[in-house]
Amino acid sequence: MKRSKCTAARSKRGLTNSGRDGMHKKLRFKFIALSAPALIGFAEFYILPFIRSIAYAFTGGGLEKRFVGFENFIAVAENGYFRLALKNTALFSLIGVITVTTLAIILSFGLAGISEKALWIKAAFIAPYILPSASTVLIWQAVFDSNAYFSLTRSETWGGFFAVLPLYLLFIWKNVGIDIIILTAAISSVPREIYEAAALDGAGPKALRFKITLPMISPTVLFVALLSFVNSLKIFRESYLYYKTNYPPDSAYMLQNYMNNHFYKLNYENLSAAAVMFTLFVGVAIAAAWIISERSSKR
Amino acid sequence: MKTRVLKAFYALLGAFFLLASAALIIKSLIYNGGPSLLEYWELFTVDHAFFGYFWNSVFYSAAITAVSIAISLPLGFAFAKIRFKGSKALFYAYLLAALLPFQATLLPNYICLKSLNMLNTPLALTLPMMFSPLAVFLDRQFALSVPDELIDSARLETSSALRILRHAVWPHIKPGAAALAALIFCESWNTVEQALIFAMDNPGIYPLSVRLSDLPENVSGAGGATYMFPIFALFLILRKPLESPESGEIWGTK
Question: Cα separation of B179 and A34, whole Å?
Fold first, then answer.
């Protein structure tokens, strides 16, 4: 009797369910219908306008709109400021993300090592993230407000580096806290038994960290890097407040400065072309990262 | 001994990170060279516009957070657990949109709001952010961590998609959703550029974040401290789910 019930239940399962693909058609439809508001909004505010701005990028000639082919793209690509901005932004994102993520991993390991009572420190790290940008910038202006530092930024070879350095420090200081919160949560979720088993096998604290914790939390590390990347593209506000102008020193001139300036010049065709090109760059970068992560997870 | 040194090091570092906030709060508590609450008194009573902007911010951020959490959940779940035609391409579009800086989506959004006649209305400051691609992206990550068995057993009980989301999926992803809510609230609380551009001709509806820098010098400390307060309170409220191991599990799902 008991057995037949069991097989009945199993056959019922077999009918309705065979993993992800077997979800009832009706139920699938219901879930997709529930997703409709988000999809419609996304289409209305992101996809359709983006298609329109692609169209913009191919038109020109002032009021009488006509098709100009790749003219706008070529103009943008040949613009020295666009190139400078692209280079600076790529550099800033790359260095900024690597530094802030590495630092967050190191600090999170350290925090996991000290007792639970010191949790207020973790809360302290998040403080710069929630501070209004204006006050954040004021502090850093005070730090770098000296004639000695000013003359450094004027020096021939390293002037550019020193001019943009405060922006890097500001970025790291502001974003390391949110990364630490996420990473420490991930570290604490690694099951204790794994450490115990590895310790029995003779693994030292160093091996535990690099051979167990780090691989276990690697998806979280990837997410933290992604979040830092998004935030690295938001540095414009701090830059604007710090340098007090839309035209910062050359080494700190980012894509966001370029786009902002062209928006206020009502130079929409040029701006659309720049935005489309930038989206393409980011799209290719993500696709590459995606393919790499899919391949490495298959291994 | 070693942990003590480590602790001291972290305490110092933490203090360094707290420095700016502490300086702001201390400044707000000093008036005419002595400690007092007069700065707050003056901010709240003399400059009446302050509360208007404050409540603008509260209203926008709360609306954006609530709506985006609610509408992104089913889609995130669908991305994680249902295979449908074009889901991979669509998800890629979401990921791309989530990673683009505001300046790249500025013009598309502006064109759209203009054609809908929404510029200079509160809708312009809330609607585009309600469809946050980041929320959908994260909800998918969270939903991936929900075991298939849990959903299957819920499906034996009910055929309502809403009930499955509410009773099987939601309890599981709650810590993640709390973190997401904190992120979205923080982001919308801090918007400056969007408001400046989308509400250019109607400064009355600006959020506090835009007005903060216009505050007169003698009340700017109190203004900044009050501005920080809601976010600080939010993090205190959400601290438990944010720091729990469960949330760690959720963040880490691939």
Answer: 23
